[in-house]
Specification:
The protein is an alpha+beta fold and about 190 residues long. A 4-stranded antiparallel β-sheet has the order 1-4-2-3, covered by helices on one side.
Length: about 190
Amino acid sequence: MQFTPSEFAAAVASASDQLKAVQAGLSTLRCPEIRPLRVKLSSLSEASIKELLKDLPSSHAKADKDVDYVYVIRVAEPAADTVSSLRKALTKAREIGGDYCRVIEPCPDTTTLYVGRSKSLKTRLRQHLGAGGAGVYAMHLERWATGIDADLSISYMQFVNQHDLLVQAIEDGIWESLRPAFGRKGGK
């Protein structure tokens, strides 16, 4: 049986209802606590990453199943060429091959490297900061950025029992307003 125009109309009506629910949720949403982390690129190692992330929730507990995190990774104390140096280094690493995130066309004044979302914050940040996580789309900073003298600021927010589309809208809104140098907008 073929997909029909009436099924399409029903799908559009359902999407419209979902978006209205997200809009209502956004209109009453308060900013959650924004928690900080800071890391020195030149000090990245498996041990330093483990120490930095040790107090983050593992997200393996049953209570964590309805928790989402939205995070922002940026240069902590921006110098004029820091983001440019990072962009060049990642572009070079991507030429060699691998599973690196996308380098976005230059946004002249951005200090933001990446905006993302995850149900398992500790695992996701380990992928971005570390050299492991083969095959996973991430920054993998330990592989290519330890020669750059810069500190990164990581800010994250926790959302509990929020609609998936609402959290996605928040991530997309942050992405649009900060215009990161790496990654991509939108869900998987």
